[in-house]
Amino acid sequence: MDFGPMRFGATGIAVRASAMAIAFVALAACTTYVPLSDAYRGPDAWPSDEPMAYRDLPQQPFEVAGDVEARTRAHFVVRQLSLPSAADPGEEISFEYYDVDGDARTPVIVLLPIFNGQLSIPRFFARYFANQGWASVVVTRGRDPLDALTAPDHAMLSNLQDYRRVLDWIEHEPELDASRIGMFGVSLGGMDAVMLTALDRRVNSLVIAMAGGDLSYLLTNTSYRRVSRTIDDMADSLGTSRAALGAKLDAAIKLDPLALAPYIDAERVFMILTRTDTIIPFEAQQQLRATLGSPEALYLLTGHRSSVVYFPKVRNAAFEFFARRFAEQRIALAMN
Fold first, then answer.
1. CB neighbours of 88 closer than 8 A, spacing ≥ 6?
2. How far apart are CA 292 and CA 285, in angstroms?
3. Contact of 166 with 97, CB cutoff 8 Å
4. Helix residue spans in 132-174 (DSSP H)
5. For the segment 20-43, what is each residue's pLDDT rounded down to a tens digit?
6. 285 contacts 294 by C-beta, under 8 angstroms
7. What are 132-147's pLDDT values in tens digits?
8. Is 271 exposed, middle or buried, given 0-12, 13-18 or 19+ CB atoms closer than 10 A?
9. How far apart are CA 84 and CA 165, in angstroms?
């Protein structure tokens, strides 16, 4: 049936607005906000005899290897910067710096890369923060996570050292307020963000979405095709089962979000969890939240990829959480 040209008069606009309102109400009904647990009593203290070589990673001197103005927007300029890698001096770590207008020192949100390294998701959030007057840093992925399965701890530590190098750069930028650094990560970026927050006291607040714990479990139980195929190929080459390979990975991986989560103050954390997720299974997300001390959270009735429909809501909730944390930090500094 041909309806002919579609035109919207006043009635059509009203109908369309009504439909959008209904859609927003329906989406809102599929989200649940949960506050920080009343039972939370604070983070664990680092064990005095803990031989964690990656704890309190030392700062290193650096020079900016490159600084190019990439894009100009109404309220900010995006600059492409690179620093020498902390883990490998022959390599570089690159990031986009969303330099906002004005001379006042601003908070900064650091957005860590997702598994496949695509920048569309962190850029979506970074643009919003920059339009609100906050500087943002979008870190690009330099290593393929699947290349590191033979030495996972070394690879993760190298990434954390590089991310910490970005924090060193922030601390030396006079236009950025290093006392108000927010960390933001989605999926694998969220798991890296948990570990970095535990290891670096300069991170003021943390927002993570669709992040889980127990990396060996995630590697052997995710529905993400590229990872699943790699695990199957590894098991076949070793002549073993998935379960046996998972046990080997569990023995090899010590640097895990679950191992470091108890040392983070849950009051500094906001989580977004996806109830029907099979890429980062929901039970792994729940386990990470419990290990963090059950911080405040937003539950979405969606899977991993389909969560994109909630990104505007996630963006606003993250901004409100960071703003509250930054305000508390300013009050605390003024009282000292």
1. 158
2. 11
3. no
4. 152-171
5. 444 445 555 589 999 999 999 999
6. no
7. 999 999 999 877 777 7
8. buried
9. 9
Average pLDDT along the chain: 87
Q: What angle do the packed helices 242-252 and 225-238 form, to 10 degrees?
A: 100
Nearest CA-CA partner of 93 in 48, 137, 56, 132:
137
Question: What domains are defined for the chain?
Answer: 61-335 (3.40.50.1820)
State the maximum Cα–Cα separation within the chain, in Å, rounded to a whole number. 76
Is the full-model pTM beyond 0.85?
yes
Which tokens hold the place of 144? 């393929």
Query: How far is Cα 80 from Cα 56, in angstroms, rounded to an integer?
Result: 28
Please name the helix (run of DSSP H) or strand (run of DSSP E) that holds residue 26, with its range, or none: helix 10-29
Which uninterrupted H or E stretch holds 257? helix 257-260
Burial class (CB in 10 A: 0-12, 13-18, 19+), 201: exposed
CA gyration radius, the chain: 21
CA distance 230 to 236: 10
Element (H, E) at 288: helix 282-292
What pLDDT is attached to residue 3? 34
Residue 159 corresponds to which tokens in the numbers above?
A: 């990434």
Q: What is the pLDDT, as a whole number, of residue 329?
A: 82
Spell out the residues 6+ positions from residue 272 whose beta carbon is closer than 8 angstroms to its own: 207, 208, 209, 210, 297, 298, 299, 300, 307, 314, 317
Give me the phi and psi of 209, to 5 degrees please. -125, 135
**Sign of the dihedral through C-alpha 314, 318, 319, 320:** positive
Q: Which amino acid is at 210?
A: M
